[in-house]
Amino acid sequence: MTVHLHWFLPTGGDGRTLVDRHAYTDGGITRNRSGGIAGVRAPDIAYLTQIAKAAERLGFEAVLTPTGTWCEDAWLTTVALAQHTERLKFLVAFRPGVLSPVLAAQMAATYQRITRGRLLLNVVTGGDSVEQRRFGDHLDHDRRYARTAEFLSVVRGVWSGRPYDFQGEHYQVEGGLTALPPDPLPELFFGGSSPAAGPVAAEHADVYLTWGEPPWQVKEKIDWIRRLAEERGRTVRFGIRLHTISRDSSREAWATADRLLADPAVHLTALGRGDDADVRFDLATGSPGALTRFLDAVHPGVVVNCAGATRGGARDLTRHNTVAVATVCEALRRSGGGARLVQVGCASEYGPSQPGSSTAEDAVPRPGGPYGVSKLAATELVLGSGLDAVVLRVFSPVGPGTPAGSPLGRLAEAMRRAMQAGDGELKLSGLGVQRDFVDVRDVARAVHAASLSAAQGVVNIGTGRAVRLRDAAAVLARVAGYAGNLHEVDAPHGIPQRPVIGAPRGEATIAEQLAAAPFPYPDGCGPWQQADVRTARDRLGWRPRINLEESLADIWMEAACRI
Hints:
Blueprint: E1 6-8, E2 14-15, E3 40-41, H1 45-57, E4 62-65, H2 74-81, E5 89-94, H3 101-115, E6 119-123, H4 129-134, H5 141-158, E7 164-167, E8 172-176, E9 188-191, H6 197-204, E10 207-211, H7 215-231, E11 237-241, H8 250-262, E12 271-272, E13 279-280, H9 288-298, E14 302-305, H10 314-334, E15 340-346, H11 370-383, E16 389-394, E17 396-398, H12 407-421, E18 425-428, E19 434-435, E20 437-439, H13 440-452, E21 457-461, E22 467-468, H14 469-480, E23 485-488, H15 510-515, H16 534-540, H17 548-560
Parallel strand pairs: 1-4, 4-5, 5-6, 6-9, 9-10, 10-11, 12-13, 14-15, 15-16, 16-21, 17-20, 18-23
Antiparallel strand pairs: 2-3, 7-8, 19-22
Helix pairs in contact: 3-5, 5-6, 6-7, 9-10, 10-11, 12-14, 12-17, 14-17
């Protein structure tokens, strides 16, 4: 097997963090025209030439060049660098939906003649709907892949050297032709893990690309694409994109990795209503002007908004979840700092979903209660603000700090009291509800990744796996050492369905209150919830790491220590 090694061309800027902010924008819409961002090296032609020459001298076959709002144009940049190199090839990323396929075929043919055959093409169908709309592309995820299939059919047809006709849903071409076909034909690189992407890769790609994932996941994807290609009588090669750390010893390499993950250059300033905040400020009642003055004073690179309320009437929820976000957006618009906004949303914005389904970011939101409505309104404010912003829709967070009044917090408390009283049976109801539980520490990692990325729009944060509350209760019992029986009962008549936690003696016990709640999750999502988390993987490079048992063990430890 022959291994081909490629390097990366940082056309958005270069630096020493794991994921860099971009050189001229700080990752934001507001441009910094006075100079580059501190700690990020600008992608000027002199610096990129140094990288290209070094890659060529060290024996790399090609350099991958990204595409997107925050990068220099890949076609123009690389054809300029080709004049400073002799053998190095350029893997040019481009989006099929933003230019004509016949024009793309012509550009590739011209490029091959100018560079003497040093073009490779990386087809980026696009995973970020906000970024796509910025370029005028309003198709949904699956239709973008269908259009890519037509696009590549036209490109290859035009390269045949004969007039090419094509009639499809997205393209109609009559006599498509280039003056001279490219020689050699550029190889097509293609990535995508969704069901819509696989057949396109199998039909058109020369090389299928995947991210650096656990070996078993990579094997699954390779086997999948290879099978689809064989069904079409084709052979596809495979490539993988990895970030490497090279040091003199393994210990030094891991120490560098830990430093990158810790990101010690980050300085946090916390605003909030509580005593533990660095600066006391109530977003629900404070003025945008006051917040703007604070932002201009500290000049943050990123603003993370995770403030809000989960309980209360519609008026209070609107004030804390929607008005507060409007204040943040207005303050950021007025501020001259160009900070990036990471808004922490929630899965309640989607509302109920079909059991067995995975909810993707393009699902139509239908919140099932005032909490979800207030959070969805906040998301719409962020997306329509014109700011450099991303909304993380967090599914069901668990782990350290889980409120005692939450369903799992109440379950742990009921179990603690049962063990304290020596009860051998715990009666519960509503355990058929299924939720996508994600540890709060994984959520924190997602916020960090979103802060440093250029992702826009909405990104789901979950595990991609629904778990029955019944199964979570069994795991909690195991980690707690509760040897009694968990007995699921129907909700008895006459007991209120909205239990009051901490009821005094003589009223319903915790166990009775849990048994009274047929749907112990007041999030308006009904009996089923499961996230489609492919966008978080593809756009943020994020995956959950902490399993549910560890999260539940932390919930139990806090409940066991509660007096």
